[in-house]
């Protein structure tokens, strides 16, 4: 029989494999329902910073109630998933010393990564993401970093944003925190947007996790070829339109 201590050691070793996925159920069980925020949380975030993903602290589910946000805002529309500071875009950094200060000051905080600075994120329903990963593997493509976040799959790519405003091209798939509901299918997080980083905890009890073999150490792919693959995958999982009956 494996003791609790030996099980925890095994989970820590598994979580320590660079780029490996995180088994959310195992992490939650080992952490006594705390979603594994004490299992190499700092290392996972420092790895992401080392890979060039700029980040900033975010709110987290309140320990008082899983659906109450740590910001204590009554009726918070995005509990446990929004940045702590309104200045998150300028605050986001890859500086490991700043990150360590935040980790000490906010031991329960989730972390977001600001998109459109060093990377973008193509965000699709999890089933479409699974189909896309299978296709990429069949084509011999290694793919880039990919994370799972409570029914969604996040594909990290190179950014199309540039320092030159004249070179910026908007896209109708552009998604911002306040427009998530307008993009139930494919979303493109670029300028002025963000996503949660592993191992952030969600009010639902889910944990944001890297897909096994698709950690932050992977090179960021060109977004346009990947966009085509994800568009096809999303089309495969869209519900069929209801058949309209005609009276004769």
Can you put this structure into words, describing what you see?
This protein is of the alpha+beta class and 248 residues long. The protein has seven helices and nine strands, in the order αααβααββαββββββα. The protein starts with a helix and ends in an 11-residue tail after the last helix.
The tally of beta strands, per DSSP, is 9
What structural class do you assign from the helix and strand content?
alpha+beta
Strand content: 5-15%
Order of helices and strands: HHHEHHEEHEEEEEEH
Spans of at least 5 consecutive residues whose pLDDT stays below 50 are 1-36, 242-248
**Biggest beta-sheet profile:** 6 strands, mixed
The helix fraction, in percent, is: 25-40%
Number of helices: 7
- What would you report as the Rg, rounded to the nearest angstrom? 19 Å
Terminal residue distance: 70 Å
Q: Can you list the strand order of the major beta sheet? A: 6-7-3-5-4-9
Question: What do the pLDDT scores average to?
Answer: 82
Please state the overall shape, judged from the principal axes of the Cα atoms: globular
Task: Give the SSE layout.
Blueprint: H1 4-15, H2 24-30, H3 41-50, E1 55-58, H4 88-91, H5 96-105, E2 110-114, E3 120-125, H6 126-138, E4 146-149, E5 152-157, E6 174-175, E7 187-189, E8 194-196, E9 209-210, H7 223-237
Parallel strand pairs: 6-7
Antiparallel strand pairs: 1-2, 2-8, 3-5, 3-7, 4-5, 4-9
Helix pairs in contact: 3-5, 6-7
